[in-house]
Amino acid sequence: VEFGHEVNDALMRFFEQCTRFVQEVDKNQSAVIDVQKFKQGPEMMRVQEKIAEHLGVPSSFITYDLAEAAFFLCTYEFAVKAINSPWCQLFDEDDAKIIEYASDLREFWKRGYGHDINSKSSCILFHDLFSRLDKAANENKLRQQVSEAVTVQIGHADTLLPLLTLLGFFKDTVPLTSTNYASQTQRSFRTSHMMPYAANFLLVLYDCGEGGIRLQPLLNEKPLTFPGLTDQQVSVPLYEDVRKHYRDLINGCDFETECQLFNNPAEV
Question: Would the keyword Hydrolase be found if you checked this record's keyword annotation (predicted)?
């Protein structure tokens, strides 16, 4: 079955269109300085030393890039072919957690909570999402046929993570840094859980009769609870309450304004 579709990179690849994000984060090495520091830190150095010991080579031979490449070969073969690759023998569970943290650290500073513009770059998708929900909810209230019962939008992890961040999901009390790996073992921001292969984020409207119109968020088919609405009886709060919770973003969060690159007054 073929379905009509359109390519809208301005909407689904907003991160390429947001000048401020591109200049201040994506092309700015200092924006991810914590990632570089962690790669050169004691935890990663120990991983590299253990690999060198396992292979019987000088530790100077094993760089972070080589260790990461070996780990990816291990994980890809396991994920794609369901085999325990020989590459996996170079790592134990502690090593895997350290490399996972390095990856999470990069996503935190590059697409997540590390910089405000990371999430604000998704304002255009946020507004598109709520405009579709508003339209369906209003049509339902007026007892009209819902004109767009299902909308499927396809993007990348780079599309999904800023939106999840803008909505406030998986936000830890303490930011991820290069020096607090040991205290972040129970962190919420764990991209392997948030964005596995074929990650998907669903927002489902329900007409509950006298119970009102309600909205349920699901990530990878698992129900979520909207941040700040934890006092709701279930993970399906009233749509009106969700809109109130995000009213500042709904009334603001202008993509053009947020993504405008302001010159430093000293440089003008």
Answer: yes
